[in-house]
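[RESIDUES AND BACKBONE]
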Amino acid sequence: MSGKCQLPSAWPRTASSRTSRPDARPPGKVAGGCEAAKLEQPKDVPLRDPKQWKLIGKPVKRLDTANKVNGRQVYGFDLKLPGW
């Protein structure tokens, strides 16, 4: 077990600091709760340097654009349900 939250140390942490089980399921509820949930929230939190940002302000490839432009994109309104 690691830390006060009683997470098994075998569970790896991702780049976003999320913990995941070895079988890729989310950790779910931790038995006994987590001490961090009882701490008071900090008043002044320093922000990261924009050079460390991974997505904000960076160009991101839009994979849905081509289908929207050529009319192949299916929206919820376009669905035809049986019997309707």
Notes: The chain has one helix and no strands.
